[in-house]
Amino acid sequence: MIFFSALTCKAQTNKTDAPLKRLLYGDINGQYCRAKNVVAKKYGFSLLVVAGCKVDKELEDSVEKENKRVNKILEQRHGKGWQIEFNRQVDTMMKLIAEAEALVKKEPYIHQGHRFSTEPVEGQNIFSVKAYGWRYQNEKMQKVTYYKFTVNLATKTVTKESDVIELFVDPISPKEY
Questions:
Q1: Which among 83, 102, 123, 164 has most CB atoms closer than 10 A?
Q2: How far apart are alpha carbons 74 and 44 in whole angstroms?
Q3: Dihedrals phi, psi of 114, to nearest 5 degrees
Q4: What local confidence, expressed as pLDDT, does residue 103 receive?
Q5: Cα(28)–Cα(35) distance, rounded to whole angstroms?
């Protein structure tokens, strides 16, 4: 009975069974990170930002160690050099996201201060785009999603789905990740 419990605990804590996460730190380009996460899902992992630009040697070493472990698993799954195809797909996704956002920016009520969160919905032709911004209210920073759009790249059409759909209170300064 004790032997069985030990095996069960070991199986639950086996790192290869846990969802794979590649760790990042530094000055992260939010749009690029989102594009990488979209493609990473296809490869069976996600990206996790663990720190900003100020990191110590201990964090650098632990990130490097964890990413080596994850990269080894990904190489076993996808073959040697999988990163080349991964990066090509990220570049393609970046172009598609930029194209979708360019179409949304043509809408008359979109202004230069809006930021965008863009995700593919169906295949590589349909995207969900949220136009958001930041505001202070009651001495707290709030992220406000002003509009949600569906963009069809094949037909070059933009459909406004809704106005002011989400409000988030963020005690930290606004960062786009």
A1: 83
A2: 8
A3: -70, 140
A4: 97
A5: 12
